[in-house]
């Protein structure tokens, strides 16, 4: 008697390929180009993130210039022009809008419309995706800052610093602030329940921070409790760092601690960068939990 046994299928193994560092960076750079093109094709994004600081600088300069310089004596001698006083705050606001508001609203929309779900099925890793978003923010924020400085100098006749040390401070505060804002924006994108509600959730947070952080109002005119609250968040420190670059050193006495305190600026932005990075990685999902 011959026993014939059916051939058993061999178990198959699935190999998950993890993109190497070279592929991760290459895909990230490709995403930077794509995200940047997409950014400049969105009229709403351009109006409320890219051009918003220009609009506000123009409004404040036109509305309050008749009152004379800020920080001058009773005869109006000395101090700086209204435009020069508000320029540092508008640069800081631009960094926050480019990173926090732009990315939080954009990523929440991509979660809601299924874009992230589709990207999750491609070789794109979360790191490449983050590189694309952060790179886009850095490119657009740099263009925004350069154009804002050009407008300030040409249209509003605002004197810009001539000291290289001031520009070195501008560089590290700007880079630090933009990257921190980008990570905070990615983390904040987990808060809205849908793409439609993202603007309604994120925009008020960003607007309140601008009012209490010395962007639209002179910081020292705010109540102490409001100054202390603003000090918890990164925008206050970005604005303070920018004021140290563009305002005379005599204005340092008007800061909360009576000095520019750039070490505290670096520490605060560093802490928020770490917090934003950790929250971004913990909360980021290709697919919504309630999908």
UniProtKB/TrEMBL annotation:
It is found in: Cell membrane; Membrane. The chain crosses the membrane at residues 46-65, 85-108, 137-158, 170-191, 198-219, 259-279. One of its GO terms (cellular component) is ATP-binding cassette (ABC) transporter complex. The keyword Hydrolase does not apply. The keyword Signal does not apply. InterPro entries: ABC-2_transporter, ABC2_TM, ABC2_TM_bact-type, ABC_2_transport. GO terms for molecular function: ABC-type transporter activity. It is a multi-pass membrane protein. Residues 44-290 form the ABC transmembrane type-2 domain. Pfam families: ABC2_membrane. GO terms for biological process: response to antibiotic. Keywords: Antibiotic resistance, Cell membrane, Membrane, Transmembrane, Transmembrane helix, Transport. Belongs to the ABC-2 integral membrane protein family. This is Transport permease protein. The lineage of its organism: Bacteria, Bacillati, Actinomycetota, Actinomycetes, Micrococcales.
């Amino acid at each position: 008697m011959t026993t014939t046994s059916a051939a058993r299928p061999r178990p198959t193994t699935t190999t998950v390929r993890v993109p190497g560092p070279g592929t991760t960076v290459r895909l990230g750079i490709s995403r930077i180009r794509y995200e940047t093109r997409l950014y400049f094709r969105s009229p709403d994004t351009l109006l409320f993130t890219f051009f918003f600081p220009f609009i506000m600088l123009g409004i404040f300069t036109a509305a309050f210039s008749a009152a004379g310089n800020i920080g001058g004596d009773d005869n109006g001698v000395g101090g700086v022009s209204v435009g020069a006083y508000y320029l540092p705050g508008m640069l800081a606001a631009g960094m926050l809008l480019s990173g926090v508001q732009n990315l939080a609203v954009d990523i929440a929309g991509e979660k809601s419309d299924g874009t992230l779900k589709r990207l999750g099925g491609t070789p794109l890793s979360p790191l490449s995706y983050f590189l694309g978003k952060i790179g886009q923010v850095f490119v657009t924020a740099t263009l925004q800052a350069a154009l804002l400085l050009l407008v300030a100098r040409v249209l509003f006749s605002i004197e810009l610093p001539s000291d290289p040390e001031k520009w070195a401070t501008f560089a590290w505060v700007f880079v630090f602030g933009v990257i921190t804002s980008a990570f905070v924006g990615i983390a904040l994108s987990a808060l809205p329940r849908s793409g439609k509600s993202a603007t309604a959730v994120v925009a008020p947070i960003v607007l309140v921070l601008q009012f209490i952080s010395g962007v639209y109002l002179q910081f020292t005119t705010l109540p102490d409790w409001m100054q202390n609250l603003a000090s918890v968040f990164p925008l206050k420190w970005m604005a303070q760092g920018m004021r140290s670059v563009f305002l005379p050193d005599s204005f340092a006495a008007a800061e909360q601690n009576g000095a520019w305190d750039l070490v505290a600026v670096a520490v605060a932005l560093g802490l928020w960068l770490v917090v934003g990075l950790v929250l971004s990685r913990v909360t980021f999902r290709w697919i919504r939990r309630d999908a």
